[in-house]
Give the backbone structure.
Amino acid sequence: MSEHIGIVACSAEGAALCYRTICQEAQKSMGRYEHPEVSMHTHSLGRYMRLIRAGDWEGVAGLMISSAGKLAAAGADFFICPDNTIHQAFDTAAARTDRPWLHIAEEVAAEARRQGHRRLGILGTRFLMEGPVYARKLGELYLEHAVPDGDQRRRIDEIIFSELIQGRFTDASRSYFQEVIRKLKDRGCDAVVLGCTEIPLLVTPESSPLPVLDSTRLLARAALRRAMVPISAEGDI
């Protein structure tokens, strides 16, 4: 038996990558074709964005709580949210639900500490780069961080919302992200957090000037560790 993972989703591409990672990587420990039970729910990204742009984080938490309730009714034992930006409402949502959550930035920070990194560059939406989510969690582990400058933050945000969440991944945008990462390296960063769950679909470890901390896959793997009780493979079907 394994625990039932509930995915409180927000944007489609990042949620899909998280779901695929869970299903694909579980087979390494659980056997061919095996993975924990997974349910996913999301309100429309449009509803989230109207609240985010209005600074209504209480409203964002309300949508997360609503999704969590639907997932609990489906049998989920715990929740994850493969969206960094809306973690600004995480504490409120987690306090008002009766099942545990995993925090994406905590998983990233723990992995950064495990790998021996000291100063992380943070990439994500403007709301994420300028917000408290990573600053707080990295600070708890005495890790430093840096974000791109204002013009770069605006351009990254534009690429995320006009391209990445629409499933568009261009060489020009990849080159821009590489340039930004190089500048973070010049500022003393020794790794970069891909803190929008779609960025790993554009920037890979092989294409990045710095080691990457892929928030999407790190959260998925943390969910697997919590959920899995290995079972014997039954062979090919």
